[in-house]
Design a protein that fits this description.
Strand order of the largest sheet: 10-9-11-1-12
Number of strands: 12
Order of helices and strands: EHEHEEHEHEHEEHHEHEEHEHH
Number of helices: 11
Strand content: 15-25%
Bound molecules: iron/sulfur cluster
Length: about 350
């Protein structure tokens, strides 16, 4: 029997995911299906399935998008050649890249132009890492966090260490330590490239991990920040398991467990967290373990805002009846949440 649940705060949707989900919801509501999306809009099985049911077709190769189609690019950021090809073949392209990923793209571009050798700590094959490396493939070396800098010897020129936004903080610290040991002059972003959501969620789960017999992390297998939350707990010596939903909880995990921690990766909807808590049914209730209040907000992509503004003007002029009615008015976007957008999509 589970005595109590400690629920991490912050957890779940970050500002980048909020923006991307709302943006794709607008697209689905404004355009006739299919709306195409390059890569999963965010790495969450449930969210992707909800959009597929609403008429979104996810593709991993932009050349498979029909000419003249409506296309969105995912929150993880896309390679420059993908963005260019998308613009050539699609009637409308909306790029929902998170601004914090764009910041890293800008760092890579600027450093490559300055002749800096870039070591980029990230997971091979992850959409964000693929897109970032493609910004300056001739100047950048991918460093897997688990392998670190073993076998990588930078040249004698200027060197920088950059990172995927969703790494584990301990992984980043390890590789940074190795880099500084061999090159004390290594350049980095002022703190790191790990985003606020990644660090806040790891700090929150770190606070509750040693008070729990185990921690359940809600999120999908291909979600890098979700996996980092699991590794954070295990590094602190606490058992941790990732689940997409309550149905994946195994009874043997709960044997001899009294206090269970619950958190969620940045792309996991909160209703799935609630279902996990319901399944655990703690007799002593749920205690919130809050470390910081997040207030970050990212506006909808500029291309989408322009498009919706034009559509609204056409409706008001009586030219078209197809109004941008996804979630209300554009100028109220801050008050409209991605959870409400998903509700609209699935109701
Ligand atoms: Fe942006 Fe961080 Fe969220 Fe990724 S996890 S979408 S970088 S805020």
């Amino acid at each position: 029997m589970i005595e109590r649940v400690l629920l991490a705060e912050p957890r779940g949707f970050c500002a980048g995911v909020e923006m991307a989900i709302k943006a794709l919801t607008w697209m689905v509501k404004v355009f006739e299906p299919p709306v195409y999306c390059y890569h999963e809009i965010v790495h969450n099985e449930w969210v992707v399935a909800a959009f597929e049911q609403a008429g979104v077709v996810f593709v991993d190769d932009v050349s498979s998008v029909p000419e003249g189609a409506i296309l969105m690019l995912s929150a993880h950021g896309s390679a420059p050649e993908v963005v260019a090809e998308a613009g050539r073949r699609s009637a409308v392209v909306i790029d929902s890249v998170c601004p914090l990923v764009t910041k890293v793209h800008h760092e890579v571009k600027r450093m490559a132009e300055d002749g800096v050798e870039i070591l980029y700590v990230g997971h091979a094959g992850h959409d964000e890492a693929v897109g970032t490396v493609a910004v300056a493939p001739g100047s950048i070396t991918l460093v897997e966090p688990e392998a670190g800098l073993a076998g990588i010897t930078p040249g004698g020129g200027p060197v920088a260490l950059l990172a995927q936004t969703t790494l584990g903080m301990h992984e980043w610290a390890d590789v940074l330590g190795q880099a500084k040991a061999s090159r004390p002059d290594v350049m980095t972003a002022r703190k790191s490239d790990l985003c606020y959501a990644t660090t806040n969620r790891q700090e929150a789960v770190g606070v509750l991990a040693d008070k729990c017999d185990l921690v359940l992390v809600v999120g999908s297998e291909n979600s890098s920040n979700t996996q980092a939350l699991v590794r954070t707990c295990r590094q602190l010596g606490t058992r941790a398991y990732r689940v997409d939903s309550a149905g994946q909880i195994r009874s043997e995990w709960m044997e001899a467990a009294s206090t269970v921690g619950v958190t969620a990766g940045a792309s996991a909807p909160d209703h799935l967290v609630q279902e996990v808590i319901d399944r655990l049914a703690p007799v002593g209730g749920v205690e919130l373990v809050s470390t910081i209040t997040e207030g970050e907000y990212f506006p909808l992509p500029p291309q989408l805002r322009s498009l919706l503004t034009v559509l609204q003007a056409l409706v008001e002029a009586g030219v078209t009846a197809r109004a941008p009615k996804a979630g209300g008015r554009l100028d109220h976007d801050r008050e409209w949440t991605a959870s409400e957008a998903l509700l609209l999509l699935t109701s």
